[in-house]
Design brief:
globular, homodimer, alpha/beta
Chain lengths: 207, 207
């Protein structure tokens, strides 16, 4: 049913907010009315921050991560090892790996995984730029860090083949039982992989 | 855990978005990254619409509904019957009643209901302005259209007492079985009220 809005300003905001994922017109209306109940500053700051974000963010020319400069802070950091490139699906995954504090290499953000069902082929994502990057030299290891899903595995395999003739080590994330998970609820494929790739118990002390 | 954001612009937007109700930092990040993936126009329009909303909206001096002018379009509409005032809790409720297409009177938006648990007393909401409005004359009927909750009933009763000595008819919404509901799942109090206030079956033909 078409809602009767008291104001075109309100209707416009509701329309804009409801374009966001997971936000329907009812939620958008609730958010807009919330903004109206707050200090004027809150609404203005929110609106301005979104404009600044959209206008100020570009993509790193090297790794395709979001950045405010041509080359992102990770790629331009002299303390990062540019010979190790971690291939991830999205900007969010870069944040996840950065939060582990375990990685001192650099990234390559694909911007998606191959998914024919969604019309995403190899050319829709940043695979060619990865190949070019490796061909330019200086990369010793490519870590495939995509999701352990059908699409992720397909993309892993496609990249593996594209990099086939080049002198680079290609690794992937370990598959195994997630920390905190019970064996009872872990699927058989994961259990099988975790058995095959078992590690020395004594090595876990040093981590 | 503190997230490492790739950019202060992104972090700022996430912080602002996560001030909205029902949106945590994870959802805010998802929304911000979505905005980045869209056309630049989409983000800029969204931001600008929120700023315009917050700067352009004020409250109607007569009914306290949101408005872009001193007096809202409903109050200034010559076809509306200003002698019938429907008292509602919120701006959203005005929209709900407008959507029924059944009401040609005007509104009075309280901006809440009396709720001592939440620190909302009679002076926190627009009750005195309602009393003043009735005292100025011209109002023949006040329809109490608040929620059928403890707080709503309390507020109804408080308003009823405040308007006690004035020459005005005070009515409230009918209580009864909701349209589409089954008797089996309707509570006893509602069933009791619906029996007491039963209406002529023949009257339902004309609605």
């Amino acid at each position: 049913m078409e809602q009767e809005y008291a104001s075109t300003l309100l209707e416009n905001t509701v329309t804009q907010l409801s374009r966001l994922p997971g936000i329907g017109r009812k939620t958008a209306l609730r958010l807009a009315l919330h903004i109206l109940r707050q200090d004027e500053n809150m609404g203005v700051d929110l609106g301005q921050s979104i404009i600044n974000l959209r206008k100020g963010i570009r993509y790193c020319e090297s790794c395709h991560n979001i950045s405010e400069t041509d080359i992102c802070p990770i790629c331009s950091n002299p303390n990062r090892d540019t010979s190790v490139v971690c291939v991830v699906e999205s900007v969010k995954d870069v944040m996840s790996f950065e939060n582990t504090g375990q990685f001192s290499g650099v990234y390559h953000v694909l911007g998606g995984v191959i998914s024919p069902m969604d019309g995403i082929g190899p050319d829709s994502i940043e695979i060619q730029s990865l190949v070019d990057r490796v061909k330019r030299g200086g990369v010793e290891e490519v870590i495939l860090a995509l999701s352990a899903t059908m699409e992720g595995e397909t993309t892993n395999f496609y990249i593996y083949r594209q990099l086939g003739g080049l002198d680079v080590k290609i690794t992937q994330l370990a598959r195994g039982v997630s920390v905190g998970n019970e064996i009872e609820y872990t699927d058989e494929i994961t259990l099988g992989r975790s058995l095959l790739n078992r590690t020395l118990f004594s090595e876990s002390f040093n981590r």
